[in-house]
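Async update (no meeting this week)

Hi team, since we skipped the sync, here's where things stand on the single-chain job. The sequence we agreed to prioritize is pasted below, unchanged from the tracker. I ran it this morning and attached the output directly underneath so nobody has to dig for it. Comments welcome in thread, and please keep replies under the output.
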Amino acid sequence: MIYINNGKLSEIELTKDNFYLAIDFDKTITARESMDSWDSAGNVLGEEFKKESFKNYQKYAPIELNYNISFEEKERAMEEWYYSAIDLYYKYNLTKGKLIESINTSKIIFRKGAKEFLEKMYKNNIPVIILSAGIGNVIEQFLQNNNCYFDNMKIISNFLSFDENGNMEKYKKDIIHTLNKNMAGNISEDLSIKLKNKEYRLLLGDFVEDKKMIEKDDWDKTISIGFLDKNVETNLETYKANFDIVLTNREANFIEVEKLVLKHLN
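Output:
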């Protein structure tokens, strides 16, 4: 089903020259049934790795999806989860070669219409900022494998680093998680100027927190679209309160996005 804030859509008309795209990766560019970038990064690390990883998931995923607890409590839990997840890669000896093998053997699937959508963004020279709380190496490799890692794109995510022998280095950078991902401090001055010259933004995500990819001061100049694939009845009102458009079930795809907001693009 499709839920639309018609007032916002009547105020904003997107053309190829007047907006940029801020978009999540896992379960947004990729489908609901797709492996996420975290699981994909460790796909060949063995059963013990998968058991520990799943144990973390069972502990923290319900917190991530709970909109009834405080922001502070959820933020602490997300930091614990994400650092712990990266430490598991290190513990189980992830190498650069194993990472590439993991990505290439993972079941990562585009959401319907997503690849064509990204190609259209490139064709129309629209800046695409992928902001992900996942693993940037996976996102980059997946897009390269599918011939759609274009030069109009910038990926802001958690990138693993490797030494000259291909061994994973201990992760020492700030973690990007679902509650803190944004463009601040993560883009070049030239790109920042280019984006500021765009009057509007198009934002796509699958978590309510994805709305924060764009600064609050810019929300009135943003068309925000939320994909709601699970717990629809439970979370629908929350999504409707936060996104201008909510797409659920069969309509949660990029073909509908194009129909709704990209009528002026070739």
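Quick observations from my side:
Residues 44 and 101 are 7 Å apart (CA to CA).
The longest strand covers residues 128-135.
Reply here if anything looks off.
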